[in-house]
Amino acid sequence: MIIQASGAIIDGSLLGDLWIETSNGVIAAINPGTHSKPDSSTDGVLIPGFVDIHCHGGGGHYFSATAADSISAAIKAHKKTGTTSLVASLVSESIDDLKAQIQRLVPFYTRGEIVGIHLEGPYLSHARCGAHEPSLLIDPTVAQLQELIELGQGAIKMITIAPELHGAQEAITYLASVGVFAAIGHTEGNHHDASTATDNGASIVTHFLNAMNKENAEGSIANFVINDPRLAVELIVDGHHLSFEKVQELFALIGDRILLVSDAMAAAGNGDGLYTIGALPVEVKDGVARLSSNQKLAGSTLTISQAFINLINHCGLSLKQAVHATSTRPARAFGLTDRGEIAIGMRAELLSYNSKNQSITVIN
């Protein structure tokens, strides 16, 4: 297939008129100029498909659903907006419920409909539990993690852990030893906790500055994250979890380490209304999800496509920076070496970004 475009982000740069040849779902050639008989053409700029490593659902459905059709609907809600690689995140549940949810998701991983499972809990701080049910939170043990990972048959790729919990450092060391990404998050921990966790193999920070101390004082976890280049840093760029001004500030400090996540709940792509997260009631109003009980933020209603546009329109970032944060960096942080950029040999998962009407189109 030959795709003609007015431009594309290639190797971190915006190039002009070019055409791309794909074969069996892989980019086979990239050539400057105009092809005489392209199979398709776009006036927009070609960018790689989005990679979302932290997403709980969408289209009115959760990845924790008991029905396979509901899980499929959640996947489709994001893929139709350009998220070509999606990780299914699960919130804190009892271990038995979590096991059942993992087993239901394994076939979706085996078929390549998701690229992994992320357990955001139950190994979280009570003080920073956010929209997780406090009574379900527990300390991690290596034996329990081993059981969950074996049950996942290779699908469990990331687990968020508060590093100050009893057993957390041993758990993080174990996860790193078996190739599962350990993420620091939902934590009341300090600089030392984060430093030890990173030395033990933690490599990602779950939605930075949400569900953790926001103060960048010396000795704080935020200060450690800002200053340690080993950590990839998730941000939720919806204007509610962080102000757009704060996002600008963070990109100025650590832009090459930032990756955007949706942290989307069921309302993404489905509109306002009453929902739940786990067993907790949630109200979505004007696109903002909050717990009915205390008005705390309860995930987002984002798609990565909207976060991408927010970066450009509201944060003043370049197209190159936006592509890096929504495709290249999350792919690299998650070990997905065959996607996240437009290059020969990479998966031909392409989108077209039109700056005039701020639209993103999936290129089939």
Structure in words:
With 364 residues, this protein is α/β, with parallel strands linked by helices. It has 2 domains: 2-46 and 349-363; 50-333, TIM Barrel (Alpha-Beta Barrel), CATH 3.20.20. The protein has 9 helices and 20 strands. The chain has helices at 68-79, 95-110, 142-152, 168-177, 191-199, 221-227, 244-254, 304-313, 319-333; strands at 2-10, 13-15, 18-23, 26-32, 40-48, 50-55, 57-58, 61-62, 83-90, 116-120, 156-161, 181-184, 204-205, 232-235, 258-260, 273-277, 280-285, 288-291, 350-354, 359-363. The strands form 4 sheets. An 8-stranded parallel beta sheet has the order 6-9-10-11-12-13-14-15. Strands 1, 2, 3, 4, 5, 19 and 20 form a 7-stranded mixed beta sheet that branches. It has a 3-stranded antiparallel beta sheet with strand order 16-17-18, with no helix packed on it. Helix 6 (221-227) links the parallel strand 13 (204-205) and strand 14. Helix 5 crosses helix 6 and helix 8 (304-313) packs antiparallel against helix 9. The chain is globular and about 65 Å long. The mean pLDDT is 96.
